[in-house]
Design brief:
Blueprint lengths: L7 E6 L9 H12 L3 E7 L12 E4 L6 H14 L1 H14 L6 E6 L3 H13 L3 E5 L17 H22 L4 E4 L2 H7 L6 E3 L19 E6 L11 H13 L6 E6 L2 H14 L5 E4 L7 H6 L3 E5 L14 H9 L3 E4 L5 H9 L2 E3 L3 H18 L8 H5 L3 H20 L2 E4 L10 H6 L5 H10 L3 H10 L4 H16 L5 H6 L5 E5 L3 H11 L3 E4 L3 H7 L3 E5 L5 H6 L3 E5 L3 H7 L6 E5 L6
Parallel strand pairs: 1-2, 1-4, 2-3, 4-5, 5-6, 6-7, 8-9, 8-11, 9-10, 11-12, 12-13, 14-15, 14-17, 15-16, 17-18, 18-19
Helix pairs in contact: 1-14, 3-4, 7-12, 18-20
């Protein structure tokens, strides 16, 4: 059923490209349009878009086909973020006279983030970021491992720069979504409002169908990267053992729909194990032909790698979801022992293997089913399976977007932490540092707190778990005895948003203990005013004057400086003062 209120949404995306032209975003836009949303998409011009769409898509040209033009623009992008700035400028020009309720950006690149953020700022509306992939999911940049050393160095530099640029906008988003539990946990470092929305299958395209075949076929579709990202050698060793034991299913083929580089990697493993005669190679097939290939398979192979500090994380390959859609048995080799293995178990989609014995047992079980019926069918959990359709995920997206819209108008109480909830400059006290006159002068002249920055860099050498443990102990042993009691009584029963110039780990710890809705550490005040339109505020900071003036009610904690506050805010009748009768230190 359409929404009672029509919402207008601006969608910003990176370039649509083959093979599937961003099916995650296309499914969402199709669904929202059918539900009565007004959807407009802006993206980088890349190649002709062959798919139908009931919503307008505007392509903004960035690069030309001239090599020299591309080189200088790429260099300017590395040095000055030229591409993001240019794209943002063009988008602002296109939407200058239009009205929207929300901006959604869907990307695995940092380029559209600036454009989406500036559009949200321009229209004073919420921003939702959907990250399909992030660089940190492959810690050693495995996707580029095949490149020569000098190209890998350039890629690594660009990757580091892009991560920094991306993180700046993550903290400014009103809500974020990503594709695996690992991604959600990782992104919590920059934003607490992160939602899990998996990738999935189109239930209209990938539906079960029983087709009898005269050969037991194990099928793989897609690229084969090197062992840093995918290491299916366990599968080849299992086939080798079955050959030696005389238990190999027959007739059987292993069909690879991949490119020449993938063929070379497969053949290298096959020759090592003496299984090359089982391998059959085919070129990539068009996206709309993939369901038919899967329907005629007996087992769908998913190449993975065990997750580790140096290995990939949260890789929820579309190949798995497509096999889930057609209900073909999935053999994931090896088990990532993380998110993918968990979903395979929850859906009863097949096996995430850790030993050759598991693989051999699984192959023989599916072979017996094929012998009996001429086809295989995995007895998946239907209710759980349905949660991974793109149609279900589009409904998830809609609920997240509606909550993001509603949050802008919900009444909150913004609360500072340092010298408002506690008699403490939490960062300085946590890191056991004290300022000096020279540092104070630097801060007044250049807004540079040198002592604080150096101490935070030292603290960041600790692991995330060590940082959280130290913050917990600091809260219990140091902060709680320094509670400002009148403020704590005021916030009881209220929807709290912590807004404080403190370290993220401290703000997170305090938020967890007091049950805050969310927190913003080192916030940009313009972002806060865009994000929340109906709020009260409790603070001691003169830097919060812009928030105080927009608040319905303001409570100011004074430290023998009430006269200065009254001088700066002489006509404000919405202010209540709590006088501590003391200096801060």
């Amino acid at each position: 059923m359409p929404n009672n209120k029509t919402h207008s949404i601006l969608v910003v995306a990176d370039a649509f490209g083959k093979p599937a032209y961003n099916p995650r975003l296309r499914s969402l836009c199709d669904y929202l349009t059918a539900q009565g949303w007004l959807v407009e998409v802006y993206t980088e011009q890349f190649e002709p878009l062959p798919f139908p769409h009931a919503y307008p898509i505007t392509e903004i040209p960035v690069y030309t086909h001239r090599p020299l033009d591309w080189f200088f623009k790429m260099l300017a992008t590395v040095l000055f973020d030229w591409k993001s700035r240019f794209f943002a400028k063009q988008l602002r020009r296109h939407i200058a006279n239009k009205q929207y309720d929300l901006v959604l950006v869907s990307t695995f690149l940092p380029t559209p983030l600036r454009a989406a953020y500036e559009a949200a700022q321009m229209h004073h509306i919420p921003l939702h970021i959907d990250l399909r992939d992030i660089d940190e999911q492959t810690p050693t940049n495995q996707y580029q491992a095949h490149r020569r050393w000098h190209l890998r160095m350039v890629e690594q530099l660009f990757r580091t720069i892009n991560i920094r640029r991306r993180n700046k906008f993550l903290t400014k988003a009103d809500s974020i979504s990503s594709v695996s539990p690992w991604h959600v946990d990782f992104l919590h470092r920059w934003n607490t409002n992160v939602h899990l929305i998996y990738n999935g299958f189109d239930e209209q395209q990938f539906a079960p169908k029983n087709i009898q075949t005269d050969t037991f076929r194990i099928v793989y579709t897609g690229r084969i990267y090197d062992a840093a990202l995918q290491d299916p050698s366990l599968f080849f060793r299992a086939l080798q053992e079955m050959q030696q034991e005389g238990t190999l299913p027959t007739p059987m083929t292993v069909d690879w729909y991949t490119d020449e580089a993938g063929k070379a990697r497969v053949m290298q493993m096959a020759k090592t194990t003496g299984t090359e005669t089982l391998m059959h190679f085919h070129p990539f097939v068009p996206t709309d032909a993939v369901p038919e290939v899967l329907h005629q398979s007996s087992i769908v192979l998913v190449a993975s790698r065990k997750s580790s500090d140096q290995g990939p994380h949260g890789i929820m390959t579309t190949k798995f979801f497509e096999a889930l859609g057609v209900e073909k048995p999935v053999l994931c080799v090896p088990s990532d022992e993380e998110c993918l293995a968990q979903v395979i178990a929850e859906t009863n989609a097949g096996l995430a293997a850790t030993t050759t014995a598991q693989i051999k047992t699984f192959l023989l079980e599916q072979y017996a089913q094929w012998q009996a019926n001429g086809y295989t069918r995995q007895n998946t959990n239907p209710e759980t399976r349905q949660h991974f359709s793109r149609q279900y995920q589009a409904r998830q997206f809609e609920q997240v977007l509606l909550r993001t819209l509603a949050a802008q108008h919900q009444h909150y109480t913004l609360v500072d932490i340092c010298w408002t909830l506690f008699y403490s400059n939490t960062t300085y006290d946590f890191l056991h540092i004290r300022g000096n006159r020279f540092n104070s002068l630097l801060y007044k002249l250049f807004r540079c707190d040198l002592i604080r920055s150096r101490a935070i860099r030292r603290f960041n050498r600790y692991t995330r778990e060590q940082q959280q443990a130290q913050a917990e102990q600091f809260y219990t042993d140091y902060l709680l005895p320094r509670k400002i009691t009148p403020v704590w009584k005021m916030i009881e029963g209220k929807e709290i948003i912590l807004v404080s110039q403190t370290m993220d780990v401290i703000a997170e710890t305090v938020a967890n203990h007091i049950g805050a809705h969310t927190y913003h550490a080192l916030p940009n005040k313009e972002d806060i005013l865009r994000r929340y339109t109906d709020f009260d505020i409790i603070t001691d900071n003169f830097s919060d004057i812009a928030l105080i003036r927009q608040a319905k009610k303001a409570t100011v904690i004074t430290y023998n400086n009430r006269s200065r506050w009254e001088h700066l805010l002489p006509t404000n009748s919405n202010i209540t003062y709590i006088e501590t009768g003391r200096e801060k230190y």
